[in-house]
Protein 1
Amino acid sequence: MNTYARPSVFIDGEAGTTGLGIRARLEALPVDVRSIDAARRKDPDARRDMMSAVDLVVLCLPDAAARDAVAMVDGLVTAGHRAPRVLDASTAFRTAPGWVYGFPEMQAQQAQAIRTATHVANPGCYPTGIIGLLHPLVAAGLVPADYPVTVNAVSGYSGGGRTMIEAHERDGGPAFELYGLSLQHKHLPEAQIYSGLSRVPVFVPSVGHFAQGMIVSIPLHLDLLGHGVRGADLHAALVAHYRGSDRISVPDACTSLCADTLAGTDRMELRVHVNEEQRQAVLTARLDNLGKGASGAAIQNIALMLGLESPSGM
Ligand SMILES: NC(=O)C1=CN([C@@H]2O[C@H](COP(=O)(O)OP(=O)(O)OC[C@H]3O[C@@H](n4cnc5c(N)ncnc54)[C@H](OP(=O)(O)O)[C@@H]3O)[C@@H](O)[C@H]2O)C=CC1
Ligand SMILES: CC(=O)N[C@@H](CCC(=O)OP(=O)(O)O)C(=O)O
């Protein structure tokens, strides 16, 4: 930490969608947020100088710019200068060696790993739902690691950052669009690894003409799970895993779900919908892609990294 009483934070990409969300949430924490003059916000020298003066840098940048920023931090270390700890919101380092990935509720000891890491990768919005549902069930042996998982998901258009927001708000659509149909979405590696799956899931993302909100859904044939596994066992395992969390809840099943209900919050709801007669279940995660899927998760990780109490969730 520096000589200031309050830890200092620089958000590289402060003017972007995720950066603005983190900036707003940092107001609830006793930190000194430092900014670069808007005219120089992409100037490498200004960014490097700022990085060398703060305790934590939060990267809210496209992947290539995040890689450049991490190279700047590593360069400070190599040159023997004081270097900040790093929280990266991009996809660039989520499966990279030497980085701690994730959200504090992901597994026991995750919060402690984030607390002490120098480099933390914030999880992706879709993976937060996928891992949030599957990690506890795979770890409990209820879903086999080699289960042929399919994930269907819909996100609000803010998931595509400034460019997609401008396209939807200027042109009014499309109403609903499947994408990622080359089956190579950038979130697949983290979703597979941190869920504990041995097969790459089939992932069908989509985007709708609403600003914020997300549903991730995962259909399961119960007969392909462990012998005699019932929907109630899946629900009970999720309840046990997230007991005590103020942000992740496991409500009872419902018959319909709206994607934008949790918009503007940092919460996530996980459900198990079951038809025991047909031995079928659908797992669902509902969250705000910009909340628990991005800035809300980041603020929890920032608080852990700076040894501060997490602000109560929005
Ligand atoms: N939107 C979402 O739901 C989520 C996004 N993320 C991740 O967060 C990161 C940021 O995404 P998002 O906020 O949506 O994107 P935005 O496009 O809204 O914001 C990115 C910001 O970075 C700025 N920027 C680009 N290049 C540089 C550079 N070289 N130096 C300094 N600033 C730069 C952009 O400026 P300009 O606009 O002028 O180019 C913009 O202000 C991405 O990696 C994304 O994957 C993570 C979880 C969810
Ligand atoms: C609707 C939309 O385009 N969503 C983005 C995912 C959001 C994002 O960029 O986020 P992460 O940082 O969580 O990876 C996509 O599918 O590429």
Note: The domain at 125-289 is CATH 3.30.360.10 (Dihydrodipicolinate Reductase; domain 2).
Protein 2
Amino acid sequence: MKCHLLQLTSQHSPQYNFSRIQQYLQQLGSDSHNALVVLPEACLHFGQGSRWNQQAEPCNGGYWQLQLAQLAQTHHCYLVAGTLPVSAEDGRAYASSWLFGPNGQGLARYDKVHLFDAEVNDGSRYQESRDTHPGQYLRVIDTAIGRIGMAVCYDVRFPLLFQQLAAEQVDVVVLPSAFTATTGAAHWQTLLRARAIENQIFMVAANQWGCHGDGRQTWGQSMIVDPWGQIVAQLPQGEGWVSAELPLQDIAQLRIDMPVLHHRRVATVERIKEDS
Ligand SMILES: O=C(O)CNC(=O)[C@H](CS)NC(=O)CCC(=O)C(=O)O
């Protein structure tokens, strides 16, 4: 599987972000053909705050969804568009990543399951659930180029989600992200490598990078990690592509040699208290 991740510094304007993505895809030329192309979280609608849900599109046929579908068709690739706002029943919006196929068909939509409500030591308080409705389905997509699982950003902190995808024998998990500079420096690489090793999957993580105009700073270091935990390709800083050819055929042997997924057991907890 040919794989290209785009590291971006998305700004507020979806139009601006879209034209940047278009330019970057043109750079790939025919290298994009039948490749997996992954864009970061909130690739078009970054840092919208409470305007996030106001810009939500219906779950089918929204303007930006169509633009991205056409982009996949133009470049004949499997395009993962990190999180667009899709209307939810309660007035919030789902953070929905799409997988578009090379004919421009919508193959899957994954709504971010774990929402980032956290105090980070960077002067910001994140309250994603205020404007975002959590998803409740995981997606495993069989394509002509491999079996793909989908997750987003903060999801990477929740190993059970990846265990569920691994139980479905996915080859690759895509992870569009917008990790903060603070938590990225501390945790990003370790989390990605851990999820790859323990589940014997390729982790394909496209992150936002840099200063976004609203004072927010994201970490970058988009990377591809193989099932042995090695970093195959990465881009520490700056905008641009991270590319690699992924030898999916090697996964089967690894799962035979060290069948951790079959060795999983759930033991019973016993509490012990020291007599006082
Ligand atoms: O708000 C936007 O425009 C785009 N979305 C994000 O930036 C999201 C929700 S605030 N960020 C994360 O999930 C960061 C997780 C993270 O940094 C960690 O787990 O440490």
Note: The chain has one domain: 2-263.
